[in-house]
Amino acid sequence: MTKRLGGIYAAYVVFGVIFFGPVLFMLWSSLRNNVDITGSLFNLASPLTLENFTGLFERFDFARYIGNSFVVAGGSTLLGLVLGAPAAYVIVRRKLAALGFLTLLARMAPGVLFVLPLFVLSIRVGGPDSLAVNYTLLIVAHLIITLPLCIWLLVPFFEEIPASIEESTLIDGANGWQRFTRIALPLALPGLSVALTLSFVFSWNYFLFALALANEQTLPLTVIAFNFIGQGSNDFGGLMAASTLISAPALLLTIFAQRWLVRGITGGAVK
């Protein structure tokens, strides 16, 4: 029994190093000078500094880029939930599995397939010259990521809700929208927390659409990170600091929503 527990704990340590090692290395490198990073990876005696972080805000309008990421990721996530929750409910109650599969096709296709049509659309509607239009295009483009994800994460939760519960409200004259908003939606709150968290993380980390569609005023963090790598010079310290700031919101959201996340994932796994 002792040997078995020892093997389990050893496996935990190994997997912990595999999963958290790169994150810790990123945090540590973000506090080191570029010379120390390239000179010796494991020199624990190298001095720590905050220059990489302060340099981000001195060299770039980094606060704007952070705001842009929140606008695009937050907007696409909320819009994905607003559209995805009713869509998932209708798919379950009307048994429209084929329609659900069609929404999944957009998520299965590589994002590069959508870049050229979206770029042409952006030019036609004046996206490069209009801040509002550019934000709108980026949010709508990220719906390709968030909407199918929200639908397919919420379908199992609506399937678990017995139709008899909703049918009992017909006695009180509840219509379809009232049954959805007052019965089905509150019972599916764990699923909504899962859909919100995962949709935000996926949208926050996605850079392809922003790389093709964003103008100088709407660039998000993920695109700006590429400015630290170039031919002949690489600012690894700045890149690690930028990566830390890019990772922080998604990581904090996941930690904050962990209780609802675990509840939602395990709840949706039981049929």
UniProtKB/TrEMBL annotation:
At the top level of its lineage, which domain of life is listed?
A: Bacteria
Cite the PROSITE patterns for this sequence.
ABC_TM1
Keyword Cytoplasm set for record: no
How would you describe this protein's topology in the membrane?
Multi-pass membrane protein
What are the record keywords, sorted? Cell membrane, Membrane, Transmembrane, Transmembrane helix, Transport
- Localization per record: Cell membrane
Instruction: Please list the coiled coil stretches.
Output: none
Q: Which CDD domains match?
A: TM_PBP2
* Residue span, ABC transmembrane type-1 domain: 66-257
TM annotation in the entry: 7-28, 70-92, 104-123, 135-155, 187-213, 236-257
| Family statement drawn from the similarity comment of this UniProt entry | Belongs to the binding-protein-dependent transport system permease family.
Q: What is this protein called?
A: Carbohydrate ABC transporter permease
Q: Which organism is it from?
A: Paractinoplanes lichenicola
